[in-house]
Amino acid sequence: MHALQEFVSKHILEEALDLLATVEREKAIAPTDEQRADLYFEPRPNRPPLEEIPHIGRPIWRMSERRGIAELCSEPPSVDDAREYVRKQLNLHHGLVLKTPKTPPPVPDLWIISAGRPDSVLKKLKLKPVDGSPAGFYFDDYLSPMWLIVLPELPVTPETRLLRLCGSRELRTAAVDEIESLPPEDPTRQPLLSMLFVIRHLLSDKPELAAEDPNTMTQARQNAERALQDMYRQGMSRGQSDSKAEDVLAVLAAKGIPVSAALQEQIRTCTDLTTLQRWLLRAVTATRAEDVLKAA
Q1: pLDDT computed for residue 234 by the predictor
Q2: Sheet of 128-129: strands edge to edge?
Q3: How far apart are CA 27 and CA 41, in angstroms?
Q4: What's the number of CA atoms in the CB half-sphere (13 Å) around residue 223?
Q5: Ramachandran region of residue 136, left (φ > 0), alpha (ψ -120 to 50) or beta?
Q6: Among residues 52, 47, 46, which one has the least CA distance to residue 17?
């Protein structure tokens, strides 16, 4: 169960942050060290305002304001775990300083996102609740900026919905049910379903992970698939091709978005599955074909 939760959490958070920051999964911290951060992100210079992407929620939007790393924990981390995360954070900062010694950058933020409450970490590191943030957010910057998000403490609100998808099976099930129950005109519904749709494609190549939770993720896949079927029927038939490239073009056609011959060729000749999956996610919310490729 933990492997599935970590897999889903990394991809959900990566897709969310990608709208606002350049994101790298399993970021190598130093060439001589085996340390890797679950996610590394740097804010894009032209980050869209929250009003344009309300499905992201203010907490993740604020997370992307500064360079940072995220560590996703399917169990409450120990104090030793937290020390290891801080070591990654400071090693990363050291590498960044070596690149620009005359104008050293600030220490990147460390975000620990936990499926449970790590009482020992909260007590030992003296993390305090964050004013102006939802319950479940803790912070301290005595040595370096460290944030802790305790997922089960988050309030059940639209702004925490995406983060709660990264939690335990119970939290994830509740968040999926919320998304399914959103009215069609809700602007957050389609982007969230598109993320679940991408997870569906990712899990299709990892049956051992999907088997860990035969109910929640199956339901999520069905919900996402059902929500997109109308668009597929209005555009080209998905049965015409099993190619992910055709899926991207199908969604754009269903939305009535024109695609030039050059862009069609670029999409159809792409052989990188990760890129095609990213394009598919963007196609669901894009207003121009060019937006799909730029976001990749």
Answers
A1: 42
A2: 21-28, 36-43, 68-73, 109-114, 146-150, 137-140, 128-129
A3: 9
A4: 25
A5: left
A6: 47
The residues facing 40 across adjacent strands are: 24, 69
Q: Which one-letter DSSP state was computed for residue 236?
A: S
What is the Cα–Cα distance from 96 to 169, expressed in whole angstroms?
Answer: 37
Name which of 127, 40, 41 is nearest 82 in CA terms: 127
Contact by Cβ (8 Å): 179, 223: yes
Burial of 8 (0-12, 13-18, 19+ CB in 10 A): buried
Radius of gyration of the chain (CA): 20
Dmax (CA) for the chain in angstroms is 60
Residue 187's nearest CA partner among 74, 53, 278, 289 is: 53
Residue 212: per-residue pLDDT: 54
Look at residue 149 in the predicted model and tell me its pLDDT: 97
pLDDT along the chain (296 residues), means of 10: 74 83 82 80 90 91 95 95 95 92 93 96 94 93 93 96 91 89 86 76 61 51 50 41 70 78 88 78 77 70
Neighbours of 172 (CB within 10 A): 24
Q: What pTM did the predictor assign? A: 0.74
